[in-house]
Amino acid sequence: MSFKNWLPVFFLMLLFSEAAWAQIPTRPINPPARERQTVDPDQEVSSESGGRKKLIDDSTKMVFGPKTTLYFFEKDLKQNRVIKHEVDTVLNNFHYYEPVAKSGWKYQDLGNLGTAAKPIFFQAPKMIGTTSGFNAYDLYYHSPDSLKYFDTKSPYTNMSAFFGGGNRNMLDLTFARNVTSKWNVGFNLNTIKARKTLNPNARDDNAADQTSYSIHTNYKSDNDKYMLLSNFTRMKHTAREQGGIIPPEVDSTSLYYTYEDAKVWLRNSRATDLRQDLHLYQEYELLKGWQVYHVFDKRKQVVSFKTNLNSTDSTFFDLYNPLRFNTRDSTANENHFSEWRNEVGFKGDIGLLYYNAFVKFRTGKMKSPFLGNPNGFDELYIGGALRGDLSEKWRFEAEGEYLLPGAFRIHGLFVSPFLEASYTKSVSKPTSIQEVYRGNHHRWSNRFSNVGVDQIQGVIKLDFPSWTLRPNITLNRVNNYIFFNEFQQATQASGGAFMVIPGLKSSFNLKKKFFWESEIQYTLITGEGADNFRIPELFINSRVFFDSPLFNEKLFVQIGLEGRYRSDNFAEAYSPAIQQFYLQNAFQVLAYPVVDFFLNARINRTRILLRYNHVNSNLLSEPGYFVTPDFTGLKGALDIGISWPLFD
How many angstroms separate the CA atoms of 103 and 113, rounded? Predict the structure, then answer.
């Protein structure tokens, strides 16, 4: 077994050794907190009598819990505003355990956990340089910039297991401990195993399999001048592609909404996305309020798609991808993207102002067996940031970077008690797959122009005793947009597109026990390039629920119904051969309201969930719904889950 495969085993052994120590008689614990903590646990904590006390009870035993197990993010440390959060024990949105649900249902997938997914709404790019362009499984990747770094006073373990109806399962395991008071280590282990919802052959005939893990550490020197954060992250995500349900107009015996009995195109096709990241951040305080820092990244992504064209799968490719550039009897597309990044800079504070300046160098390449010479790049950036924290409720931020020559990004944010507004302007490079690609069914070489984006966003904050309203608007102007057309070819738009997206978020409560929360967005797209964006005109999420402690706050319960709705649209189809979503004009994804039931509960610090998906299945004129052309959404299914934290 290779070293990378031994790493999870080693840390599981470490975890179980800690669990054995945990069998020592337990210490008393505090009542569970319902809100996040944003202070250091080394500070004193208020007692019930209004005085102050240390984190030691009357029996002189240390009291471990959420207040002694905090985490923070690298982005906050880099911006000199370290906010330490308590580990999450709240119930709100706990039943959103699936990544698509966590996004607020703002991703389009293939109707199952772990399948290819893309954002429904246009997103302004944050990376203006070259990327791989293989983003179908970004939603399931725990990237280094999203990693939590812990400041613990005792070993901390959290085990979360989710069992979805139809064998759609997830397991999340987190472990962290303090080696010394200023040195913490930990690891995360995440798995996805989701059986096919369309025509599975057996219990373990999975649509998606994922195993990912990360190892992380953070260290601060005794004099508090030097700080180090580092992590290694790895994900292997495998999807057994199905190509969707065979349309009835192609096969008259094929029917929609038959789920396990559906006729699908593919049975011998598989896609894999392997990612590895080695990340390091370090800073040193030269003078009080002035630091220098360094960021290092080494990244690799290997994306492959394989199918047997001598099997029945060939019918699908003969219809949708008839060309054979490399081999006739099989397809074996493989792309290797690698990147090195170094960033050095300085930062500091002057009164209420934070400032930062940096220089960054990236180098990388895309390789493929049929590409010939690798598609390489060398990129040099300069940039900086400025922030003013005028008070707790008033602040402004500005940041920008310039990629020599010709690409740049600037972003500004203003926050007040009544209004939030932001402006982003960027000119970004095409992705590697958009520029050059050599696969068995597709190939191209393009010299695209950079993509230009202007985005304005604003939110008005209206708070009343029982109502909270957040009217908002997003304005996007996109020039030289690059997309995959009806022939699954990378194409650049000849005209621009302008999007006006007004929306409203609202929350109403009755005696702080009964709640009604809603979100609605309307999208209007104009311009010559408007048809290149397939966004539903109307998007609605809404839920009503009861949320209150019971039995003298021994049990916390949240129970309710929620619904979501998207208007009719010609949603993009998915091509497994190139692992990209592309435009189509033949299949209209019809509007359909989906209603779910959910129950979240917490006893002490243990949380459980029950969710019944699609309770209105077979109750409307259509027995089900589609999320992507030829891919149905879930039928009625019961999900259960549990999250169990241990603090010693």
Answer: 13
